Structure prediction request, 229 residues.
Amino acid sequence: KNQVEQSPQSLIILEGKNCTLQCNYTVSPFSNLRWYKQDTGRGPVSLTIMTFSENTKSNGRYTATLDADTKQSSLHITASQLSDSASYICVVSDRGSTLGRLYFGRGTQLTVWP
Amino acid sequence: EADIYQTPRYLVIGTGKKITLECSQTMGHDKMYWYQQDPGMELHLIHYSYGVNSTEKGDLSSESTVSRIRTEHFPLTLESARPSHTSQYLCASSERKHTSTDTQYFGPGTRLTVL
Prediction:
C-alpha cells in the first residue's frame, strides 16, 4: 500500500531557531515529492517539488532534501518566523497513471513562539 | 496567490438539506480536483476532472456528485447532507493534462458542518 508518513506530528520552536521535518514514503513507482505549507483555515501552498534525480531544492528559508534510495525526505526551515506557524504536508506522486495520483501525509503542525 | 476561489467559506446546515459547494479558477487549467480533509488528517481525493464534460471518482468514496460544464467551474453537490459529511472540502486545479509533475493550486476551502 502506498503511504506517506511524517514526523514529528507536531513541533514547537522559538522564533529564530531552525528545525527539520521528516517524511518517509513507500509510493512506487515514484515520480516526484512536494512539500506544501497549509495555514490554518486555508488551502495548501506548494513550497518545493523534487523529481527522482534531484536531492535538494531551496525556496528562500526552506530547503528540502530527497534520498530516493531510502525513500526519505526532509524539510529544513532556517531562522524561523512567526509566519512559519502552519501545517507542512509531504505529498508524493506516482507515475503509474496520467493523473499522477498524489499521496498525502498527515502533516507536521509547526508552531513558532516569540 | 493562486486564482482559485471557493464559496461559501463556511456553511452550517441541517440534516437532509441539498447543498452545492462552488469552485472556480481563472487560470484556464484543464484539471480540477475535490479533496476532503478532516482535522489532523491527510487530504483524500473524492472527485477529479480532466476537462469539460469529464468527471471521475477519486480514492475516497463520497456521496457527493460533481459536474464540469465550463473549464473554470467545478461545483460539488450533496443531495442530502448528513452529519458524517462534516469536514473541510478543498478544491484544486492544475495546468497540464498528461503529466504527474504539474503543481496543484488549492482554493481556501469550505468548512462544512451538518447538524
Notes: DSSP finds no helices and eleven strands in chain A. Residues 31 and 95 of chain A are 5 Å apart (CA to CA). Chain A has a mean pLDDT of 92.
